[in-house]
Amino acid sequence: MIRNMTKKPLEFTLRAKCSRSKARAADMDLPHGRVKTPMFMPVATQASLKGLTPEQLEKSLGCNICLNNTYHLGLKPGQDTLDRVGGAHKFQNWNKNILTDSGGFQMVSLLKLARITEEGVEFQSPHDGSPMLLTPEHSMSLQNSIGSDIMMQLDDVVATLTEGPRMEEAMHRSIRWLDRCIKAHKNPDTQNLFAIIQGGLDADMRKFCCHEMIKRDTPGYAIGGLSGGENKEAYCEVVTTCTDILPENKPRYCMGVGYAEDLVVSVALGADLFDCVYPSRTARFGNAITRYGNLNLRNKQYADDFRPIEEGCKCPTCRPKSEGGMGITRAVVNSLASKETTGAHFLTLHNIHYQLNLMDEAREAILEDEFPEFVKKFFKDLHGDKDKYPQWAVDALRGVDIDLLD
Amino acid sequence: MNIAKMTFEVAKTVASGSAARTATLNLSNGNSIATPAFITTSSRGCVPNLTPDNVNVDKHVPGAVAVGLEDFVERPQAPLLLKDVGDEPSRTRFSLPEEVNIFLQTRRPSNVLPNKPNGRNMLSMYSSVGVVDIDIDQFPLMANAVAPEVFVAPADASGLSPSGACPGSNKVKKMVMRSQRWLEKCVADVKVPIYASILPTLPVLHQKEYLKTVVENQDKINGLVFHTRAEHSEYPDQTIDLSRFDSTRKPTDAAAAESAARKAAAQGPTDGNGNPLDVKTEHLTGPKPVLDELKNLGMGKTMPLYHSGQCDTPQQMLLLIQQGFDLLSGYSVETFSDAGVALDFTFPATPGAVFGHNLWDPKFKNDFSPLADSNQALSAPHHRAYLYHLLDAHEMLGHVILEQHNLEIYNRFLAGVRRSIEAGTFDADVKDFFEVYGDSKLVLKLVEMGEKLQGSHGADKDRF
């Protein structure tokens, strides 16, 4: 392999490809260490992953990359504080990688009064209601101050189900904004800027956008504007359309994807990176994600259930004390859930481990070229009966030569 | 089954002045606790905010964890702790590291008084679903199922009142009789070491019959527990005149008047013949009158003294240690952590240092110094600005880090106390401590400040 003379902030090395589906395993070397793909990236919105210490995330869960939200960090602690301390890694004592979004998604999802112009996103300050403007330049400046290993371009986010001229405008504008982001990005030697493919559910727009973004040759590409209420068939269609076009030697990131089934299918369709608040958010509502489906541990049927959350689970919460874990049972979580924060912490540890482990297992299967078997076992464990398999997953996987029903 | 061996060896007492002492408490599990030590609070079987992997036994819970049975009695018909699953004691159902020492108590270490009197054979407890009556027969069963290092036998304290006043004489009779019977029941049926409770607020004279029961069973009792409120100890007719060290208060001001009023209130009760009772109740004078009486009644051994009642500050802890207490409730760690305070005090005091920092204060927004100035090499690598941010952003991690930090500060504080007693400088060091950091009232202002600042941050203004 030919290596560049100067080390780039992102080296993406394919390790294996599934001989049937589009699934792949790769090593992504970033400024704060190696990330093995496929990878789920937990979300530490406000520079903290809901109650977990950075030590727990790194050492107990083996996580090498998490997300911070630019919009939230821009408000608290603010750019001035981030500049003074020398970036978000130092701020939160996290020595592994950070990916930041651009802030655009929060603008649209959280602020009802946001208005998008060619200049940027106009919104009212949540502090005092005064008008503010987030431009591609401002987003880059914030993400440069954060010092994230992967930065996302500011894109024009519209509701996924939007059609016609507004979607087309958003797609074209996202391309123009990428150019402005590239120009404004001050640290291309130490921070990677990813493009975001837009175009809603329209295959032609997605294809056009992919080709335009590829011309800009960013270190990685995200598929954006999904997980916005579209049906799963449409989602899979967009992902597979994009992965067919995107270059093989760069990472592909499906933004906002976190349900286990979606992860497994998206990996089969050729995506590498994922993020979602789902595992930590659902933990706070007392839900445990397991191989066999979710359990709501607040339910009183678990009050006397002295089994681990998931039999055989290797997470710090479930692993028996004899193996260095905490040996926590469903009954214990039940007695703590919604009464003590530790109840949420136990489930957050378990759920994040579930997501990371699921991607680990997928990676191992790809490396052994046993990915189709992995996918079949995953669906069998989750649903048991083949009649219960969701049709969209069966169809999407059939499209990449994995027949779940066979 | 044999009652596990437990010993208590006093190493050093202060030569003159206070009754402070160091000792080693050897527990049945082979662990030993160097005293004076604090007993970490738990809630529903966990150290608040900490999963067991975040609890470092040596740094955070060097003494023991107090677990209240009250946290586990929502379903009196099917108590969680009595459910039999294999050979494991039900202590494995607590969210605590395996090697932690457990003191099992009836009530959780909060300050809520029961609002419903106990019955002849039942104890009223506050569970998460309301007041629950637990049959007294359940307690030995639960104690044996949990297998703690120490079980604090229940006593009838339903005569307690927030003012600290002594209950009426009929009530006193009931309290004494029930407590005698309950203690005898525990002594007969509990298979782990037992600490006996001293009846709170009752003058020695009125609990003499109960103290006799304690003495009669001394072979099977390993310690004594006092449930009083420590605030009553801060300005007693004490050996140390605290007003001298208190810059915020003159001896003639309202607090002194309050203290006098409190004493007057305690003089209220009379015996059956209308004569005033002996007003030397133990909450004003420390454990000495009770210990003297126990000795008169034939108590032959030195027992560890555990103050499990309310104790709001390290200042109050020091005064209790001077009264001779060996084990102290660490409940105040929660008070400070909940209020956003990162503690920074040492013992002996560090001249010129501050007691702690309320990290809700916007002045910490860009303060990248460690949480504590005067304690180097603490385990938390985080800085004040991050903690300010976590509190400001309502992130749960803030309370995780503060809990760890403050437990570690308390641990160092008590290690300092033990060294000071060994060195014979304790009473002087206590005076210095009050001079440098102020009294309880002063340091509790840090807590009040948290409540005020927290309000000004606006819980919902910045959230979506």
UniProtKB/TrEMBL annotation, chain A:
The keyword Zinc applies. It holds the Pfam family TGT. Keywords: Cytoplasm, Glycosyltransferase, Metal-binding, Transferase, tRNA processing, Zinc. Residues 256-262 are annotated as: RNA binding. Its EC number is 2.4.2.64. GO terms for molecular function: metal ion binding; tRNA-guanosine(34) queuine transglycosylase activity. GO terms for biological process: tRNA wobble guanine modification. Residues 21-381 form the tRNA-guanine(15) transglycosylase-like domain. It is found in: Cytoplasm. GO terms for cellular component: cytoplasm. The active site is at residues 101, 275. Its cofactor is Zn(2+). Catalytic subunit of the queuine tRNA-ribosyltransferase (TGT) that catalyzes the base-exchange of a guanine (G) residue with queuine (Q) at position 34 (anticodon wobble position) in tRNAs with GU(N) anticodons (tRNA-Asp, -Asn, -His and -Tyr), resulting in the hypermodified nucleoside queuosine (7-(((4,5-cis-dihydroxy-2-cyclopenten-1-yl)amino)methyl)-7-deazaguanosine). Catalysis occurs through a double-displacement mechanism. The nucleophile active site attacks the C1' of nucleotide 34 to detach the guanine base from the RNA, forming a covalent enzyme-RNA intermediate. Belongs to the queuine tRNA-ribosyltransferase family. NCBIfam families: Q_tRNA_tgt, tgt_general. This is Queuine tRNA-ribosyltransferase catalytic subunit 1. It comes from Yarrowia lipolytica (strain CLIB 122 / E 150) (Yeast).
UniProtKB/TrEMBL annotation, chain B:
Transmembrane segments: none annotated. Residues 300-437 form the tRNA-guanine(15) transglycosylase-like domain. Residues 237-285 are annotated as: Disordered. Residues 254-266 have a biased composition (Low complexity). Pfam families: TGT. The keyword Repeat does not apply. GO terms for cellular component: cytoplasm. Non-catalytic subunit of the queuine tRNA-ribosyltransferase (TGT) that catalyzes the base-exchange of a guanine (G) residue with queuine (Q) at position 34 (anticodon wobble position) in tRNAs with GU(N) anticodons (tRNA-Asp, -Asn, -His and -Tyr), resulting in the hypermodified nucleoside queuosine (7-(((4,5-cis-dihydroxy-2-cyclopenten-1-yl)amino)methyl)-7-deazaguanosine). This is Queuine tRNA-ribosyltransferase accessory subunit 2. It comes from Yarrowia lipolytica (strain CLIB 122 / E 150) (Yeast).
